[in-house]
Structure formats: C-alpha cells, structure tokens
Amino acid sequence: MSLVTEAPPRRRPNAPPMTSEQPATPASAPKSPADVPAIQVQGVDFCYGDKQVLKNVTLDVPTNEVVAFIGPSGCGKTTLLRCFNRMNDLVPGARVTKGSIIIEGANIADRSIDPVQLRRHVGMVFQKYNPFPRSIYENVAYGPRTLGERKKAALDEVVEKSLRRAALWDEVKDRLDDIATGLSGGQQQRLCIARTMAVDPEIILMDEPCSALDPIATSHVEDLIMSLREHYTIVIVTHNMQQATRVSDRTAFFYLGEMVEYDTTRKIFENPTHKRTLDYISGRFG
Ligand SMILES: Nc1ncnc2c1ncn2[C@@H]1O[C@H](COP(=O)(O)OP(=O)(O)OP(=O)(O)O)[C@@H](O)[C@H]1O
C-alpha cells in the first residue's frame, strides 16, 4: 500500500516509515522537492461529537519553519495541533469530518498509517513539562530503548546529542543519574524537548510550551526553538504575542474554529489584512 497519496514524500532519506508495513518509497528513489510543505491541511472540519470546532481550515506548514497558532481561548488551536499526530484519536467521538491532513506526502488518516509511528515523526511537547520520575539519562534514553536500541554506546550517543540540541547538556552532563524532577521548571521543559528529539522526529508540536515557565526559562526555551528550525519543522500554540513574533516565521490567527488569516509573522503583526486579526493582536479582545 502506498504511503504517498497526494504529494511526493518530503522525508529524511533514513527516516523510518509511518506505516506498519514496508516503506513505499525505495531507498534509491529520487529525493522529493524541497518545496513540499511538511504539513498540508486541506479543508479540514473537526468535531467533538456533534460539536464542530474547526471549520474548513486550509494551510501549509513549510519544512524547517516555525509556525505559530494564535487566537482566543477555545478557537481550536490545540485541537488542530493534536490532529497532526492523531492525538485526538484518543478522545471518544472526536474526529475529522471533512478534508485531509497530508504529512510527508501521506494522508495521515489513511488506514496504512500507524499512529504510533506517526507520533515518532511528529513529536509533541506539552504545556506542563512532564518528565518521568526517573533519571535525566533515562528520560532521554526511554524512547530509543522502547524502539529496540539496547547498546549502551548508542544510547549514550543519542542522550548526549539530544541534550546538546536541547541546550541542556552543559547544565546536566555531570549529573545524568539525578532524578529529572529535581531540575528547574525550564530545565525540565528542555529535557522534555530532548526526550522528544531522541526518537528523531521531523516535526515537533509545542502546545504553549512556556506557559508554566518564568521569563528567564521562557527565554531559554525560545532561543532553543529558534535554533531547532535548522533540524525540525515546528508548530507552536501560544497566547503570548511577543513570543509568536520572536520565534515564528509564520503565524495563523484562528477565531471560533476558522482560520481568519495566515501569513508571515511580520505581515500578521505589522499589517494584518483582517480587522479581527488587528483587534486580537492589539489586545482589543481575547
Ligand atoms: N475533549 C474535548 N471534548 C469536547 N470538547 C472539547 C474537547 N477538547 C476541546 N474541546 C472544545 O473544542 C473547542 C476548541 O478547544 P481547543 O482546546 O482546541 O481551543 P484552543 O484554541 O486551543 O483553546 P486554549 O487557547 O484555551 O487552549 C473548545 O470549545 C473546547 O471546549
């Protein structure tokens, strides 16, 4: 069964398949064009039971960019984010009722897509940092170990690489066996980002990743987000307008389940097309 439904795959050559079957694209296949978006949302409606919370949303998330979702509480930002790794599958009655979401060239609703594999490709960082009550090392090694990596040297390597990418290595390298929950809040959130990166995703979803952090820890995580775009495509939900302007390349503004406007972050914040966007970013509601 083909992984590809509507566009050529845009994946790292060594990325594991999202299907539970063999990869559809042979290793020798030509590389896909760089301009294929990492995520394509095409006319998506979404409902919790009878309640429709997303209406005809269409947007592309370009590869290796940071895209921010903004909008007043309850407008559907988190719901859309959670569609990208099918986390909403876990909510009874929750479903996409129209449209499609294409990731790396595959329609993620396709029966051949394994949600567990999908979540390896599309990692998630939550609002409240949630390390396991185990050592710093074990938190990062957990994912690769679950995927079958048993060699100590390989695990050591992935732990160091992930902690370095999360800009945490220098702060924890001498205490990797300490319990993770003893770190500061900002360090715990960066540890959770390292844990996400340890299974080598291509896309990282962040749901208000700094809302539980103080300004200094927030600034560390924002610096990290900006540095990560070199390796990952990132979608971030934020209520913090300054944060959206600092970290994102593009911003989508949502209101009552509709995407009102999507453009470069500079355009959205300096010269939005829609009055409702202007009213929101200037604090007139929300
Ligand atoms: N599990 C659920 N069951 C039923 N309705 C839900 C569920 N989760 C969210 N909703 C509803 O869907 C709508 C969109 O919620 P969502 O969390 O996506 O909005 P949001 O824009 O992320 O809000 P916030 O900024 O407050 O996090 C809201 O009306 C919310 O009450």
Task: Write a brief structural summary.
Keywords: ATP-binding, Nucleotide-binding, Phosphate transport, Transport. It contains ten helices and ten strands.
What does this structure look like?
It holds the Pfam family ABC_tran. One of its GO terms (molecular function) is ATP binding. InterPro entries: AAA+_ATPase, ABC_transporter-like_ATP-bd, ABC_transporter-like_CS, P-loop_NTPase, PstB-like. Residues 39-281 form the ABC transporter domain. The protein is α/β, with parallel strands linked by helices. It is 31% helix and 23% strand. The protein has 10 helices and 10 strands. The chain has helices at residues 77-83, 115-121, 136-146, 152-165, 169-172, 185-197, 215-228, 241-247, 265-270, 275-281, and strands at residues 39-48, 51-61, 66-70, 94-103, 106-107, 122-125, 203-207, 233-237, 250-255, 258-264. The strands form 2 sheets. The chain has a 6-stranded mixed sheet, with helices on both faces. Strands 2-1-4-5 form a 4-stranded antiparallel sheet, with helices on one face. Helix 3 (136-146) crosses helix 4. The longest helix has 14 residues, at 152-165. The termini are far apart. The model is unreliable at 1-10 and 21-32 (pLDDT under 50). The structure holds adenosine-5'-triphosphate. Adenosine-5'-triphosphate is lined by residues 48, 53, 71, 73-79, 91.
